[in-house]
Amino acid sequence: MKRISDNQKLAEPVVLMIGNFDGVHRGHQAMIQRARQKACELGAASAILSFQPHPLKVLAPDKAPKLLQTPLQKEALLKHYGLDYYVVKTFDRDFAKLSPRAFVANLCEHIHIRGLIVGFNFHFGFKREGDIHTLARLAPEFGFAFEHIEAQRCEAAPISSSRIRACIADGRIEEASALLGRPYFLQGQVVKGRRLGRTIDAPTANLVVYNELLPRFGVYASWARVRHAWYRAITNVGTNPTVGATGTRVETHLFDFSGDIYGEELVLCLGRFMRDERRFDNMKMLSEQIHKDFRTRLTYLDQEPPVFAIV
Length: 311
Ligand SMILES: Cc1cc2nc3c(=O)[nH]c(=O)nc-3n(C[C@H](O)[C@H](O)[C@H](O)COP(=O)(O)O)c2cc1C
Ligand SMILES: Nc1ncnc2c1ncn2[C@@H]1O[C@H](COP(=O)(O)OP(=O)(O)O)[C@@H](O)[C@H]1O
Fold this sequence. Notes:
Structural class: alpha/beta
Distance between the termini: 14 Å
Order of helices and strands: EEHEHHEHHEHEEEHHEEEEEEH
Bound molecules: flavin mononucleotide, adenosine-5'-diphosphate
Radius of gyration: 22 Å
Number of strands: 14
CATH class of the largest domain: Alpha Beta
CATH topology of the largest domain: Rossmann fold
Strand content: 25-35%
Oligomer: single chain
CATH architecture of the largest domain: 3-Layer(aba) Sandwich
Largest sheet: 6 strands, parallel
Helix content: 25-40%
């Protein structure tokens, strides 16, 4: 997959999709599959255009969602799903002022669009005035084939990034993974904590997480990848009320592992939510609960590790 930035032209004819693609979930995957098929029919390559930053971060920051993925994770996933080109366009207030027609004209100046595919609810241009009907009208004028994709559904409701965000915020990780079509994961760097974990035989790798959206506070069965190896693990997300920590922490105990991994990058696939984080009266009680958590039969961890090549 080739990445195209603002100042570059994409001369090869493409079937272009436009959108944020946060999550690259099953709905997005179906769209990519359709675009690749269409690209074959039209003798073109497949491409996605995404705006950076997310348009709402520019236009209404207080309404902008916390994203499921970092830009790098999204790029890795798009590559994984077989896309040929990833076009990243800077979104600013000037671009937001373009009329729907000027928006399409602007894209056609830089990209050789032979086909265009967007989702049924796609809106674009000044005040979101453009929609799929506008695109159907503009397509013959600008000389590309146009089609839209209906929502992919799961259990009667459309699959969407916001539905997946709601699952994660609520601790329904398995549901989120089902909608994503692969295990939900976080990524971050291991940093030093208070060195208390080792004193209760429960060392935990504390992560500075790259992802914006964090799951509901609580304890999760998980799989962790560090230095290219996967370990069964258990993760706590929260504020550690027992020890009065400041800020939110994401920390993971890796089973059958010992060693120093400060500074290492860790990929964390969360599985089942086990319990809420609680405030205990003292460290001894906290330690007892953590060791009880360790002994809980974690059926999630009976599965194979999520060897999916994510990042
Ligand atoms: C499986 C597990 C469950 C945990 N549950 C709680 C909890 O319910 N309440 C709490 O205050 N801290 C909880 N913690 C976090 C501990 O407070 C924290 O790991 C410990 O204080 C060590 O912190 P350190 O990594 O900064 O040394 C949990 C940690 C793990 C690994
Ligand atoms: N099984 C393990 N799981 C997680 N971290 C481990 C493990 N064994 C050793 N470590 C190391 O110990 C550190 C965690 O120990 P801990 O006492 O909790 O320190 P900190 O408070 O700095 O996180 C990890 O960052 C890692 O470098």
